[in-house]
Amino acid sequence: MSKVNAGPDSFKKWVKSAMIQFKFNIYIRFYMMVYFDLTFFAVMKIVEGNNSTTARKAALLISYIIFVINIILPVGLIALVFRRFEILKIKEAKQSFNTLLLKIDKQAKIRVGNAAYFFLRRIITAVLLTLPITSTFIFL
Q1: Helices vs. strands in the chain: H and E counts, helices first
Q2: Which one of 5, 35, 84, 130 is least enclosed by Cβ atoms within 10 Å?
Q3: 19 or 124, which is more confident?
Q4: Any idea what DSSP says for residue 134?
Q5: Which 8-state DSSP code applies to residue 139?
Q6: pTM of structure
Q7: What is the Cα–Cα distance from 95 to 6, expressed in whole angstroms?
Q8: Per-residue pLDDT tens for 99-118?
Q9: Residues with Cβ < 8 Å from 31, sequence gap 6 or more?
Q10: What is the maximum span of the chain, computed from C-alpha positions, in angstroms?
Q11: Are the CB atoms for 14 and 90 separated by under 8 Å?
Q12: Using CB atoms within 10 A of its CB, is residue 99 exposed (0-12), middle (13-18) or buried (19+)?
């Protein structure tokens, strides 16, 4: 809408500023929604052990890739927030970086840990749910 030649310039500026602020927000929110499901099903396939066909071997490889991405990506996002934390105190700089910070309190660096806890709790739950019923770790 900011590229269309119809409408007043003030509306185009407003749309452009809104796009800067929320450009990648939908992707990050979607990833946060499917994070547990992706991790759970990847770990289930890894634990399953039945890799008799080529399709099952490909699914196992994809499961390993998804599981590694689900470990690396949240660590990268949290590291990015920690690295840019001082910049985030400036309002103009914070607008373009706001997509990662919707649930993060920007008053203290230690509060970024809440976002890390979100991902850590879900990955631990996914791994514990795939353990066999005879395991003593399922009671954690």
Answers
A1: 5, 0
A2: 5
A3: 124
A4: T
A5: G
A6: 0.69
A7: 26
A8: 555 555 556 677 777 778 88
A9: 73
A10: 67
A11: no
A12: middle
